[in-house]
Amino acid sequence: MAISLLQKYNVPGPRYTSYPTVPYWDDDHFSSKAWIDTLKKSFGETNATEGISLYIHLPFCESMCTFCGCHKRITKNHSVEHPYIAAVLKEWKLYCALFDETPIIKEIHLGGGTPTFFLFKT
């Protein structure tokens, strides 16, 4: 059974990144309107057929990992959780307002940081 699980999950997964990707961060060639148009086009091509994947960055950690290359904030202050989640939900509503249909969520990836920061308090 362990071998079958390894084979099942031994596939490349998405690596979160910015959107648009860095080569497009040029005010002369990429505008807010172009970003919204590209987002709507991509959403329209994937939402109805396969759903969308979300990456939610949760940048808080109580301690530093030596291998981490992510943007993060080291803190034991858990009062940052609720304002951060409120901001993420506000951003999600802004995205949803751009779409003509309800997003079908195929996958949610949590990372950052330490996603369990939001679950465990010491």
Low-confidence stretches: none
Total count of strands:
4
What global shape is seen?
globular
Structural class: alpha/beta
What is the CA-based Rg, rounded? 17 Å
The proportion of strand residues reads 15-25%
Provide the helix percentage.
25-40%
Distance between the termini: 36 Å
Report the biggest beta sheet as strand number plus sense, adding barrel if it closes: 2 strands, parallel
Task: Please explain how this structure is put together.
The protein is an alpha/beta fold and 122 residues long. It contains three helices and four strands. The chain has helices at 2-9, 32-46, 81-98, and strands at residues 52-58, 60-61, 73-74, 105-112. Strands 1-4 form a two-stranded parallel sheet. Strands 2-3 form a two-stranded parallel sheet. The longest helix is centred in the last third of the chain and has 18 residues, at 81-98. It is globular, with a radius of gyration of 17 Å. 6% of the residues are buried. The model has no long low-confidence stretch (mean pLDDT 83).
Helix-strand layout with pairing:
Elements: H1 2-9, H2 32-46, E1 52-58, E2 60-61, E3 73-74, H3 81-98, E4 105-112
Parallel strand pairs: 1-4, 2-3
Main features:
122 residues, alpha/beta, two-stranded parallel sheet, 4 strands, globular
